[in-house]
Design goal:
Keywords: Glycoprotein, Membrane, Transmembrane, Transmembrane helix. This is PTHD3 protein. It is a single chain. The protein has 3 domains: 149 residues, no CATH class; 42 residues, no CATH class; 32 residues. It contains 10 helices and no strands.
Length: 291
């Protein structure tokens, strides 16, 4: 936003902080409970940040839509309207994510189990902070705007005859517009106007809808084909704890023995009389034939 009052820089920063608090809270709780931390868990904060920022956008959009409705100037009414619009979407998103990752804790791989447990718990905390911490930040930001205060200094922004005669840069940064006029209530966001007046009618055209269906069919077919061609593979050293003896073993095995190809093992599945010299010769002859 170009307005120094309607600019929501700090609101966006607090949305990112909310996701960061969720990561700290979940990691701290699970580490306190003794859940092992493996290297794959370090990727979890990026997932939490993505979901947390998405929830932030939903909350801000619902707040702005509620504030444009008539008779919704009261803070309590605005917040109630915002939660009634945004909470359902945020809740469903969180429930599906938490369910998906907690199902992943049933795996037998300890590394994957730790990753899913850390990430699923972080999603729960992300939801809690979005519904509490970020809601409070929305109210504080609304009160700042109602008081016509600057987004950075929180000082009151006023227009006097002397101020209106200052440079365009000063007026834009300290008053709210280049013309020296005080910041007024922000109208509908340009992006919302674009989707409502241009993108929506374009997508709902019958030929465009047919094209979208065809493109989705091609995408689905390509995805199914790709699933049949995918090759499984995993670095086993990433499935062990950081201080496990398995890690240097795999490092040395890859460094010194990777050129010899895979190991071949022969297992005798029945009882054998190893004390019998004839049996031992048969086993040695079998090994030589395999070599």
């Amino acid at each position: 936003r170009l307005s120094c009052v309607r600019n929501n820089v700090w609101l966006a920063c607090c949305g990112v902080v909310s996701a960061g608090l969720a990561v700290l809270s979940s990691f701290g709780l699970l580490l306190f409970c003794g859940v092992p931390f493996v290297v794959t868990v370090a990727n979890a904060p990026f997932l939490i940040l993505g979901v947390g920022v998405d929830d932030m956008f939903i909350m801000i959009s619902s707040w702005e839509q509620s504030s444009r409705k008539k008779g919704k100037s009261d803070v309590k009414s605005l917040l109630a309207e915002t939660y009634s619009e945004a909470a359902l979407s945020v809740t469903i998103t969180t429930l599906t994510d938490v369910l998906a990752f907690f199902i992943g804790t049933w795996t037998t791989f300890p590394s994957v189990r730790s990753f899913c447990l850390y990430t699923g718990t972080a999603f729960v905390f992300c939801y809690v902070y979005t519904m509490t911490f970020f809601g409070a930040v929305l109210v504080l930001n609304h009160k700042r705007e109602q008081g016509n205060r600057h987004w950075l200094t929180c000082m009151r922004v006023g227009v006097s005859k002397a101020e209106a005669e200052n440079s365009c840069l000063y007026n834009a940064c300290c008053i709210g517009s280049c013309s020296g006029q005080s910041s007024e209530q922000q109208g509908e966001h340009p992006m919302s106007v674009f989707f409502k007046k241009y993108y929506g009618p374009f997508v709902t055209n019958k030929w465009i809808k047919l094209l979208v269906v065809l493109l989705y069919g091609a995408y689905l077919g390509g995805s199914v084909y790709g699933c049949t061609q995918i090759r499984e593979g995993i670095d086993l050293r990433n499935l062990a704890n950081d201080d496990s003896y398995v890690i240097p073993y795999y490092d040395d095995d890859e460094k010194y023995f990777s050129t010899y190809g895979p190991r071949v093992m022969v297992i005798i599945t029945e009882s054998v009389d190893y004390w019998n010299e004839t049996v031992r010769h048969v086993i040695e002859s079998c090994a030589q034939n395999l070599e």
